[in-house]
Structure formats: structure tokens, C-alpha cells
Design a protein that fits this description.
Blueprint: E1 2-4, E2 20-26, E3 35-38, E4 50-52, E5 55-60, E6 64-68, E7 75-78, E8 83-88, E9 95-99, H1 106-122, H2 141-166, H3 170-194, H4 204-207, H5 210-215, H6 227-240, H7 249-259, H8 262-278, H9 284-297, H10 304-320, E10 327-330, E11 335-337, H11 338-344, E12 349-355, H12 360-364, H13 366-375, E13 381-387, H14 392-401, E14 409-412, H15 419-423, E15 431-435, E16 441-443, H16 453-463
Parallel strand pairs: 1-5, 2-8, 12-13, 13-14
Antiparallel strand pairs: 2-5, 3-4, 3-6, 6-7, 8-9, 10-11, 10-14, 12-15, 15-16
């Protein structure tokens, strides 16, 4: 399958600006291994996971950070025109990635391998949301921060030692320092607030630290295209606006404008607006006015086109509610349409799980989905599982092993090229939809089954 994605820019690598293929291939004799990677687009949206079977060809026009969707978080800098060979080593926690191109200098190849070597020696770049065992529940806020900062210093020391050994470019070193500073801010804020094993800290405990944390972010000329830096900005912005209803975008934007400047400000204004649009929290008319105003205020913004694109996606999502062109196939091979499915479930809330047999993150959410479905037994809600597999055999086999309910399990004819998928701009999965009792898609990018906020959204729709 060939896909075109908007990906994370790493502008310090000098390459041709026109689109080229990135080819990912399985190593010799590797037929069974499952590989899952993700990227982000330039406004840090989503985690477009995709699996690789045989050879995957992706068209890109900028360098990207390829991240393995495993606990190791292994990642590599890859460029347009690269050919990568993937191998699973028995007993290893991460995939071995080899770049076969011979056009690179030793410095460039050492930079390509830097993150994989760092992770092997120091550990994952980000602390996972499940708190590591060495962060004890009774640890104080200060103790947790000291431990996080110690991890940050270890990464910086590794970068310094690596640079002394392999002679990294100044631009690459500066990029890594900016990235690590973003990781530091994220871990301080998210580990202490979202961990499963540590009591959540009040946002108010960090609100007073906003200015200090913001000063710790290390700027870099292309940091606005640095995912970790971007996400640190996002977390700081939510800290700043925690006492405000986020639907009041005009108030949110005023605060962001007051505390951020330049590309950081333009990114945050775009990100917060896009999130409101994606989550269906603004009407089409209100969102359209904000999008228009953004374009007027920032005519040269790097994010102007993305804001408009996500707005149009939101408009298309509303239209997709009544789309009749997408054919659905049930487990018996019978065909129906998306429109018929929506009509049959009028009067009920519908939660749609878009998945595929090759998508490891999709399958990882299934236990939470089964539990949620049981909790809503005899309620006015239907759970639909819609596969975007290319082959019926792969879908049926995986659906059976996952014990998906046959009556609500379907294959979308055309996979990612199905009209429904195109209307909703579905280029990555897992993806979830929430549909109201009237048959309208109200959340075209709904929370995952494992996210607590999903229940709140479902309850609101059940009451209407």
C-alpha cells in the first residue's frame, strides 16, 4: 500500500525539497514479525500508526522521526529517498532498523543511530503513562521532579559523550537539547497528573510554576516542528488556561497571545483551535469564523493551511453522517451501506471503532472496549467495529480471535480508500467516532475506550 502523510520536519538535514519515497522492507526470511510505527503531522496531531507487511512505501517531502509503537519507543531519523530494512531479533524489545543507502557521511549515519543507541543505554525518551515501579506512590511532588530531572541530566550527558565520540553536527546537538527540554516539561506535568499508580496532583499545584517551566524550554529555529517541544508547549498552554472553559476560544487565544510569542504562539493558537474542531466542540459556523480570523491575523503562518484543512475535515465529517457510498460487509459476506447502518441505529448512541488486523494499538484497546460494552448493556448505545483491512480473511481471522460481536462487526469495502474514510480524512488508526441518537457524527475523533473521558461523552449523548 502506498500512503502520503504529513510528517514531522527535522529541518537541520539538507535534502531535496520535492517528494520522494521512503521504503520500509522486512529483513530476509522475516515473514511473521509485526512492525508498528507512527509519525506526527506539523501541528502535532494524532499518532498515525501503521503496520508493515512485506514492503511499505510512503511518500514524504521532509525528513521525519520514525517511532516504533512499542514500550521501547525506539526511533530513527529518516529522510526522503531512504530504504530501511526492519528485523526483529529474538528476545530483543526493539526492532533493528538498517539504512541501506550509501550516500550519507559518517556523521549523518551516527545521527541516524543516535536515538536507538540512547534508548538502549538510557531507556525510553518519554516516561510511559503507566508509572514506572521506581516512582513510588508516597513520593512527594519534589521527589518526583528530582527523579525526572535526574533522567533529563542523564540524557544530556549521553548526548555530550556521544558527541565527543562521534562528532555530531552543532545543529543536531541543538535539536536534541530542545527535544530533551520538551520531554522534561511533559514528564513533570503528565506523569504527576495522569499516572495510573500515583495520586493525581491538582493543576493548581503547577499553575504557579508556569513561568519557571516555560523558561526551561530550549528554543531552536525549527523547534516549532519538533514534536516533543510542541507537546511541552501544549501542556503549558492547558496549564495556563485550566480555569477557563476551553470552548471559549477567544478567551483562550487572548491568554496564549499574552504569554507566548512568534512561532510558539501561532502553533498554540492553531493547535487549540484544531482540537476544538476535531472534538466537535464548536459549531461549523463558529469554527469557520475563528479559522477565517486566524488566516487574517497570521497570513504567513506555517500552520494556516493545516487549520483550514482540519476545519474542512470537520465539515466533511458532518456530511459523512449521511454518506451512502461506503459498502459494509458483514461476517457472512452480505453487503449493506453506512447509511443503512446509521438508519438502523436511529434512537441510539453509536460508538464506532475503526481498526485493522495489523494495527497493534487498535487491538490493545479491545479489552477496554469489551469491558465498556458490558457496562452499557441494556443502554441505548451500539458498539460498531469497522475494519479497514485490505483482505477479508485477515479481518475475519482477527475479529474472531478478538471475540468481536458478529452482528456489529463489519469490513469497509475499499479500506482507507472507502468514501467514509476519505470524508473523515482517516489516514491512521485507531480512530473512533461518536454518533448521536439522531444519526449525526458529533465527535469525529472520539476518545479511546481506555480513556475515562469517553464515558462522560457517552453519558451526555444518552441524556439527549
Amino acid at each position: 500500500m502506498k500512503r502520503t502523510l504529513s510528517l514531522l520536519l527535522l529541518s537541520f538535514i539538507c535534502l531535496n525539497s520535492f517528494a520522494q519515497n521512503l521504503i520500509l522492507k522486512l529483513g530476509n526470511g522475516d515473514k511473521q514479525s509485526e512492525y508498528n510505527f507512527y509519525y506526527t503531522d506539523e501541528v502535532a496531531m494524532g499518532h498515525p500508526y501503521f503496520g508493515i507487511k512485506g514492503t511499505e512505501v510512503i511518500t514524504i517531502d521532509k525528513p521525519v522521526l520514525l517511532v516504533e509503537a512499542e514500550s521501547s519507543q525506539n526511533c530513527y531519523l529518516v529522510n526522503p529517498g531512504d530504504t530501511l530494512v526492519l528485523r526483529k531479533i529474538k528476545g530483543a524489545s526493539a526492532t533493528t532498523v538498517t539504512r541501506t543507502n550509501k550516500k550519507y557521511t559518517k556523521v549523518q549515519n551516527d545521527e541516524f543511530l543516535f536515538f536507538a543507541r540512547l534508548i538502549k543505554e538510557i531507556g525510553p525518551i518519554r516516561i510511559p503513562f503507566t508509572c514506572p515501579p521506581d516512582f513510588k506512590k508516597e513520593m512527594s511532588k519534589q521527589q518526583r521532579e528530582l527523579k525526572i530531572r535526574a533522567m533529563h541530566q542523564a540524557r544530556l550527558k549521553y548526548l555530550k559523550d556521544y558527541g565527543a565520540r562521534y562528532k555530531l553536527s552543532d545543529a543536531f546537538t541543538q535539536y536534541c537539547r530542545s527535544l530533551f527540554s520538551g520531554v522534561l516539561i511533559q514528564d513533570i506535568l503528565t506523569l504527576c497528573r495522569k499516572s495510573e499508580t500515583i495520586s493525581a496532583l491538582s493543576v493548581k499545584e503547577y499553575a504557579k510554576d508556569f513561568d519557571e517551566l516555560k523558561r526551561e524550554l530550549i528554543a531552536y529555529p525549527s523547534a516549532i516542528n519538533n514534536k516533543q517541544y510542541q507537546l511541552a508547549l501544549v501542556n503549558l498552554s492547558y496549564l495556563l488556561t485550566s480555569a477557563i472553559n476551553e470552548k471559549k476560544y477567544s478567551v483562550v487565544s487572548s491568554l496564549i497571545t499574552k504569554h507566548f510569542t512568534g512561532g510558539d504562539k501561532e502553533f498554540l493558537l492553531a493547535y487549540r483551535l484544531i482540537m476544538l474542531i476535531r472534538e466537535g466542540k464548536l459549531s461549523v459556523e463558529v469554527a469557520g469564523n475563528y479559522v477565517k480570523q486566524y488566516s487574517i491575523n497570521y497570513p504567513r503562518s506555517l500552520y494556516r493551511a493545516k487549520v483550514s484543512e482540519y476545519y474542512q475535515n470537520g465539515v466533511n465529517a458532518k456530511k459523512a453522517s449521511t454518506n451512502t457510498a461506503t459498502v459494509l460487509i458483514n461476517t457472512k459476506g452480505n453487503k449493506s451501506t453506512w447509511a443503512n447502518l446509521i438508519t438502523q441505529n436511529k434512537g441510539k448512541v453509536v460508538y464506532v471503532d475503526l481498526w485493522a488486523s495489523w494495527c497493534a494499538p487498535c487491538k490493545a484497546e479491545m479489552p477496554a472496549s469489551h469491558l465498556l460494552r458490558k457496562q452499557y448493556t441494556n443502554k441505548a448505545i451500539t458498539f460498531i467495529y469497522l475494519s479497514l483491512d485490505e483482505k477479508q480473511a485477515d479481518w475475519k481471522s482477527s475479529a474472531a480471535s478478538l471475540k468481536l460481536p458478529e452482528g456489529n462487526s463489519f469490513l469497509a469495502e475499499g479500506d482507507f480508500e472507502a468514501k467514509l474514510a476519505r470524508d473523515l480524512k482517516i489516514t491512521s488508526i485507531p480512530r473512533y467516532l461518536l454518533i448521536s441518537k439522531s444519526g449525526q457524527i458529533v465527535l469525529p475523533d472520539a476518545p479511546r475506550p481506555s480513556e475515562a473521558i469517553l464515558k462522560l461523552e457517552i453519558e451526555k449523548l444518552l441524556k439527549n
